[in-house]
Amino acid sequence: MNGAEQEAPADFDEAMYLQLNPDVAGAVAGGALASGREHYLRYGARESRRYLPASGETYEPVVIAMATIRPDGSRAPLPTAFGMEAVRMSPGGGVFVNGWIDDASDPLAELRVEGEGWAADLVPVSLARTRRRDVEQKLGSAARHPYGFWSFLDLGRVVPRNASCRVMLRLESGAGVTLTAGVRAVPDADLRDAVLGWLAGADHFGDPYSAAVTCLDGGAGAQIVAHNRRLTAGIVANPFVARFGPQGGKPRGSLVVCLYGRPEFLFVQNALFAGLPGMEEYELIYVCNSPELNDRLLRDARIASLIHGTRQTLVLLPGNAGFGAANNAGVAHARSDRVVALNPDVVPRQKDWARRHTEAVELLPPERTALFGVPLYYEDGSLMHGGMYFDIDSVPVERGGSLVRRDLVRVEHYGKGAPAGDERFARARPVPAVTGAFMSVRRDWFERLGGFSEDFVFGHYEDADLCLRSLSAGTPAWLHDIRLWHLEGKGGTRSLASEGASFVNRWQFSSTWAASLREGLLGPVPTHPLLAAP
After folding, report:
1. C-alpha distances in angstroms, 248 versus 145, 242, 318, 336, 427?
2. Per the domain annotation, does 462 fall within a domain?
3. Which of 5, 68, 467, 517 could hold 521 in an S-S bridge, CB 3.0 to 4.6 Å?
4. Global model pTM greater than 0.90
């Protein structure tokens, strides 16, 4: 678009345009430009469509200034300074915006972003406000004011690809400004990860965890969950499945293992599980959340089956579906009536663990084996897991300029760190929850409960959520004394997006269960009648 094709808005305010664009004002004063209107006609609309192409760059788009007309016909003053730095859209309808505004004396009341076939109206509660040290320096401000803002919206539908959009800011006084911003198209997964990274990495004046909860409560949490769930559904819709080793007969159990970033655990688990008493009656199912590992996993699974005679299945996904959806995909390809969610860094401590597991399933009362876990131990021999219980932390979060209490659920492990000889936490008993690092579930019960929830991003809390749904349906989780090692933290990798996902998942779990847990399910000695050991 060039100057000949452009017309300035009817209410174009040259004085305000020069105020908002000091570089232009300097060019006019120096004689390089005749007026601010000339700059707008030549460059303004085109330059304002530029997009910040990479994090770390500090380009601010040219502002198209349009004064707001009050009902009495007077012009409302424009904000002293602001910058719109990014608008990103994904094919699935995710929209991410971020920028900054000096609204310390006249608060931002509304931000509207609209393009062809879509619009997003964002009110202050849905905008995450952040500290911007670069803006403080630019403005020479020492005020403790969160100049930065960002927001995320999932439109819930595919919209036409837009090269640019209109961004409208309105302050409480009625002042406003409109600008044109470029829209960068990014894949759905990249947009999700960028949003999670902003959530985890943003700078704040107060506690960053409380600030993240405030942001999620304001609407970002539900939008992130909806976007991730839609993304996940597409990832697991059509997996590539390959089977290796002997496939005859129906196995007694299916060990479902999710792999992410660490392919070597397939070979390690094959070597350490194969040949143990009773293991010949089990199958291994590996679900890969890292498509870049597919070729190696196909090779390693074939070699491991030839060496160890293991029966196994690979379920390869085109992206990271997270723990819940990946496990559900693995269960869908299981051939037994008993499924065991197993972390890649869990290996046998007792050589006869498989036989003991089979005997428990066959001999114990069905209500004690519908869903159960086992004691897991750190590599130094101390206890990692002897069942899980819940507590609630009340954290202060900002609401309308004041602090209020917000309940966040905390998941604790019975006996975590206890010495290997301490038997108190390894005994069989009903518990509020067991870890997904090893969770044995009768398949029909798993399916009746709806499997693992896919509302959590990447992983964490799916195990506790499934146990609480089982308890709500009348069957508590149990712990049975079958011991394995858990090399915790060795089976995956973490990123800034993973940290953001942890915020979202704890928020989501707390929003779902905090009220219910107050009814006899808090603390290491819950009073719920189904958790009284016989």
Report:
1. 67, 15, 29, 12, 36
2. yes
3. 517
4. no
